[in-house]
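Quick illustration, no need to memorize.
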Amino acid sequence: MNTKTSTRHDFKPTWWNEANMTAWDRVKEAMRRDWEQTKHDLAVGGHQLNQGVTDTVKQAMGDQKIPDPSKANPPKVIGTWDDLEAPMRYGHAARAQFGTEHPRWTPQLEAKLRSEWEASVDYPGTSWEDARDYVRKGYEFSHAS
């Protein structure tokens, strides 16, 4: 008795056509990259490919080019220093204001800062979702220095 499991990569139903093959080749590569990234994220092998769910979906749909198998996706451009300075400055100042009450970043602190950020007229073009990580970086950098 053969205990080895055999996978038939060449199985194709009678209705299989070239369009199915082209679509599968694209989806297969996007899914393979996602699997490699997942293994890396779980520290069980894999490679850092800068591959997120959005990349996988866009690649599978053909909306984003799939890099060569051994190459990472291009890094995400986060903007210029001018884009980051305001949220990081806010986080740095918030540490001075709230650091005693909140020595660590907590959901309560984040809610307070978010409310203040969203109520401010100084940052109308930057959503909290776009600013949050930089505010936190500024808050935590102040503590580390």
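The chain has two domains: 18-61, 81-144.
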